[in-house]
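Sharing a chain and its predicted structure for anyone who wants a worked example. Both blocks are below, sequence first, tokens second.
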Amino acid sequence: MAATDDDRHHTTVALDLIDAYVRADRRMIGERSAGISAEAGERIVSTLKVCAAFLARRVQETGVPWRAADSREAVARTVADLLEPEVEFAVVSAWEAYAIGEHEAAWVRAHGDPLVFVHMLAAFSAAIGTAVYGREELLPTLRRVTAR
């Protein structure tokens, strides 16, 4: 099945957000996440879930020490001072539930806002991806994973 222009756009936004979190670039995070609709947010979340799952598997394969508690701290540290305080709180709260498999609780903590999941998964991917691949290799690797 061929990727559509919309699919490519959503993948680009997802990867740009991961890159922005890696760089701690508040301006880029704001620009790339501004105006994301609920529908687009869900499609971007889908791409980010692929990235997060790939990176979670890779961290296990590489032997880089990484526990659930590490991911909670890493997401909190990654989003710190890059988002508005209420969004930052929602992202960290949702990730605490999501990281232990409580996906419904995460959705409730996110107040049903797909943008919270976008930030949460992009921040996680940036944190764990940097631990596994470093800053230089992460985005090229994720481009291959997402076939972009």
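Comments welcome. The helical segments are 5-23, 26-33, 38-62, 68-79, 85-98, 103-109, 114-145.
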